[in-house]
Amino acid sequence: MSETGTAPFTIFLVRHANAAWPQPGMLDFDRKLDERGRAEAHTVADRMAARSFQPDHVICSPAARCVETLDILKDRFDRDPGIRFEERLYTDGSDTYLELIAAHAANAPASVMIIGHNPMMEETSHALLANMGESLETILGYDFPTAGLLALESLPEDRPAIAGHGRFIELLSPRER
Questions:
Q1: What residues pair up with 9 in beta bridges, in sequence order?
Q2: Judging by beta carbons within 10 Å of its beta carbon (0-12, 13-18, 19+), is residue 135 exposed, middle or buried?
Q3: Residues 6 or more apart in contact with residue 2 via CB below 8 angstroms
Q4: Strand (E) or helix (H) holding 46
Q5: pLDDT digits (tens, 9 = 90+) for 26-61
Q6: Fewer CB atoms inside 10 Å of the end CB: C or N, the chain?
Q7: Alpha carbons 73 and 77: distance in angstroms, whole number
Q8: What is the pLDDT of residues 103-162, one digit of tens each?
Q9: Reduced to 3 states, what is the DSSP secondary structure of residue 157?
Q10: Contact criterion met (CB below 8 Å) for 68 and 97
């Protein structure tokens, strides 16, 4: 086992599962998962549990489709993580995602799961993995899949976990790859 402070900081980036199109007069924020999205989230939750991916903390967009994705994933957690809902994951760009990850890494040296939206998830992935030898397109394919979970790590000497300091662990996708 690693000494305290030398263990990698694990980051789980999760794009919300597939959401239904808005009904007339419905706000985008209130869109819920559709049947496909619920199935996607359950598939990724099962794959996450099989790999023992367990966040210590979750920062989640309060948009309905993100909260529903979290509800499905957390049913497969071994323990309750600290959960925080962050409006800026809905309203702001990928720089905010990177700031939240870096702040978390600096203040709480434990794993974090970010549940949010595209294109911010894809942009955040690109930024964190910028110095990786393999292209992100090789890992993600065409785009960051709905309900996709990208696991990466940042070593203590790379903290705060900011652009270019991520190391790819695995991509869990509901799609057959």
A1: 154
A2: exposed
A3: none
A4: helix 35-50
A5: 999 999 999 999 999 999 999 999 999 999 999 999
A6: N
A7: 7
A8: 888 777 689 999 999 999 999 988 888 776 666 667 776 678 999 999 998 866 665 556
A9: helix
A10: no
Cβ 124 vs Cβ 98: under 8 Å: yes
- Give the ranges where 51-135 is alpha helix by DSSP (H): 64-74, 88-91, 94-107, 120-128
What mean pLDDT is reported for the chain?
Answer: 87
Q: What is the DSSP string of 135-156?
A: -HHHHHTTS--TT-EEEEEE-G
Full set of structural domains in the chain with CATH: 39-172 (3.40.50.1240)
What is the widest separation between alpha-carbon atoms in the chain? 55
113 in helix, strand or coil?
Answer: strand
Q: Which amino acid makes up residue 112? A: V
Reduce the DSSP state of residue 112 to 3 states and report it.
Answer: strand
Residue 45 CA to residue 173 CA, distance in Å, equals 10
147: left (phi over 0), alpha (psi -120 to 50) or beta: left
- Cβ–Cβ < 8 Å for 85, 132: no
